[in-house]
């Protein structure tokens, strides 16, 4: 776009924008002639990524703002009407980020304006409440205004259809086309007579979660918990209590929702240091376990005492908890399917095979996992778990947390810990060790460059392991829908996947090595696996030039 085109797009925007904050921001950008600022805002537009629309709050089609939200809602409604999906409400939830409540109300207003029923949650609540509520209420669609674990300046828009899963192609492409076809903002009809819902839905959700834990299960476990300044606390406390466990001690500095996430650099339990306050409280309390949610409470992180770790505690990797929950839930040989994403550990496929449970792998993103037919358990390495797919076809940090307490209390009753259970898994299936190399960039072209480099000069050996197969995921490898990414299958069952994040400006490389456990010596296998992972990581960084 030329400077003139950018400026006229900006002026056209100003003429329509109902939000004085973004108007003032854009006027300032224009006043100082900030061309990069204009390109950033008007040179592209937000697209549906791994989990809906996501971006910094600000003016322009490449930001999250009231214009983008109103148009997205209008496009979604047009799609629903064009497909005859009108015999139920659209359920709308939101987190506690900047403008989330305003964006949610705008959405409700547009849904009513389109002549559809709108049900708005009456307060900021966890994302799984919407995923649950869609099916519970027979909604035709759901929206959650949230940027989950992203930095404070971001917001986002998760979109679900009536099956309770987030949208995938072709629905996302069709909805995007319907959004593009929305005319001037002034012509988008709006209503103000939406319904609200709160306690009634929460009670149904809590009943469902509490029923996951059988009456006879041991429940003695001391937990600490942090919602990481997000919206998880009230529902977690209620769910844990209703399921019969003692209420966890909550990290007080992070207990209340706060859109600025003041005590953490990134409100993402995957980021180093994010759960430090929880670990500190866990040490002070002599707790058995520390649990955390991401800010919209669809992820669950777990840490346990580990005398060999710095500070005496360590957080489990998403794949470790995935393996533990997989063994716990699949050993009952449920009828159905287990699933995880291709960037998650291959351990789940082996657990499933050992209990004659069918297994699927999917692309990254819970929008793919949650919709797997006959799902009985699904997870992804990014701390996402679905332990009750009948009720919630998405990851759910609250039901997962309750299941984790059950698992940990059951182990404790036998004088064991989650680390002992991890050793059991390694002994039984081989040690599956995973790691991630992830690089945050300012300039997205660096990610494109790294992918180009890897395609031009594919590595033949990584960490001393021969690359036996390269799958270019952009070509739709292994029967999966095409997506940007590369997968390397290495000797001895190791594998590497490289892909750009669909929620943040990051390149993510997912590493897995598998080391057999000889003579029950899991510790030796762990050392060997750690060395191998480090070697693979170093070679991969060199090959990608990151
Ligand atoms: O934001 P959340 O917690 O919903 O999590 C979202 O983003 C994660 C990271 O995606 P990416 O690797 O593309 O950045 C995905 O794994 C997850 O399925 C998706 O729902
Ligand atoms: Mg989340």
Automatic annotation (TrEMBL):
UniProt protein name: Phospho-sugar mutase
Domain Alpha-D-phosphohexomutase C-terminal, chain residue ranges per copy: 439-518
EC number(s) stated in the UniProt entry for this protein: 5.4.2.-
Keywords per UniProt: Isomerase, Magnesium, Metal-binding, Phosphoprotein
Residue ranges constituting the Alpha-D-phosphohexomutase alpha/beta/alpha domain according to the UniProt record: 46-181, 204-303, 318-429
One Pfam family it belongs to: PGM_PMM_II
Cofactor: Mg(2+)
InterPro entries to which the protein is assigned, alphabetical: A-D-PHexomutase_a/b/a-I (IPR005844), A-D-PHexomutase_a/b/a-I/II/III (IPR016055), A-D-PHexomutase_a/b/a-II (IPR005845), A-D-PHexomutase_a/b/a-III (IPR005846), A-D-PHexomutase_C (IPR005843), A-D-PHexomutase_C_sf (IPR036900), A-D-PHexomutase_CS (IPR016066), Alpha-D-phosphohexomutase_SF (IPR005841)
GO molecular function: isomerase activity
SUPFAM superfamilies to which the protein is assigned, alphabetical: Phosphoglucomutase, C-terminal domain, Phosphoglucomutase, first 3 domains
Homology family: Belongs to the phosphohexose mutase family.
Highest rank taxon of the organism: Bacteria
């Amino acid at each position: 776009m030329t400077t003139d085109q950018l400026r006229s797009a900006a002026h056209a925007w100003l003429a329509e924008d109902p939000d004085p904050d973004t108007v003032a921001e854009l006027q300032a950008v224009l006043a100082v002639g900030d061309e990069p600022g204009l390109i950033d805002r008007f040179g592209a537009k937000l697209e549906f990524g791994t989990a809906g629309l996501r971006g910094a709050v600000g003016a322009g089609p490449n930001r999250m703002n009231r214009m983008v939200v109103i148009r997205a809602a209008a496009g979604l409604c047009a799609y629903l009407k064009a497909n005859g999906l009108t015999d139920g409400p659209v359920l709308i939830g939101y987190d506690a980020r900047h403008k989330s409540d305003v964006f949610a109300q705008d959405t409700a207003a547009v849904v009513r304006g389109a002549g559809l029923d709108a049900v708005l949650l009456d307060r900021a609540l966890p994302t799984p409440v919407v995923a649950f509520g869609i099916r519970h209420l027979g909604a035709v669609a759901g929206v959650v205004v949230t940027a989950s674990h992203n930095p404070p300046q971001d917001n986002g828009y998760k979109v679900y259809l009536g099956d309770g899963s987030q949208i995938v192609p072709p629905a996302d492409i069709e909805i995007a086309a319907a959004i593009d076809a929305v005319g001037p903002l002034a012509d988008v009809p709006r209503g103000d007579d939406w319904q609200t819902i709160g306690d009634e839905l929460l009670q149904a959700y809590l009943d469902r979660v509490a029923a996951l834990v059988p009456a006879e299960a041991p429940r003695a476990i001391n937990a600490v918990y942090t919602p990481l300044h997000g919206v998880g606390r009230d529902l977690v406390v209620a769910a844990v209590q209703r399921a019969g466990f003692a209420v966890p001690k909550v990290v007080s500095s992070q207990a209340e929702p706060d859109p600025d996430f003041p005590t953490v650099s990134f409100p993402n339990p995957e980021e180093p240091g994010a759960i430090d306050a929880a670990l500190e409280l866990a040490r002070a309390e002599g707790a058995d376990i520390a649990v955390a949610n991401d800010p919209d409470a669809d992820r669950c992180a777990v840490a346990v005492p580990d005398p060999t770790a710095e500070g005496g505690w360590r957080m489990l990797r998403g794949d470790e908890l995935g393996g533990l929950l997989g063994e716990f839930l699949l050993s009952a040989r449920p009828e159905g399917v287990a699933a995880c994403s291709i960037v998650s550990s291959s351990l789940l496929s082996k657990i499933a095979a050992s209990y004659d449970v069918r297994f699927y792998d999917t692309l990254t993103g819970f929008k793919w996992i949650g919709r797997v037919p006959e799902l009985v358990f699904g997870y992804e390495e990014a701390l996402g778990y679905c332990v009750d797919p009948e009720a919630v076809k998405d990851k759910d940090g609250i039901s997962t947390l309750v299941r984790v307490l059950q698992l940990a209390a059951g182990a404790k009753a036998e004088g064991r810990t989650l680390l002992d259970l991890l050793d059991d898994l390694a002994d039984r299936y081989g040690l599956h060790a995973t790691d991630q190399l992830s690089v945050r960039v300012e300039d997205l072209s660096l990610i494109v460059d790294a992918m180009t480099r890897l395609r031009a000069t594919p590595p033949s050996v990584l960490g001393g392991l021969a690359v036996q197969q390269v799958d270019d995921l952009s070509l739709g490898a292994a029967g999966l829908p095409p997506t940007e990414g590369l997968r390397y299958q290495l000797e001895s069952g190791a594998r590497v996947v490289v892909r750009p994040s669909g929620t943040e400006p990051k390149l993510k490389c997912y590493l897995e090595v598998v080391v057999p456990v000889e003579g029950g010596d899991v510790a030796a296998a762990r050392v060997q696996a750690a060395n191998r992972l480090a070697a693979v990581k170093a070679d991969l960084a060199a090959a990608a030039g990151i």
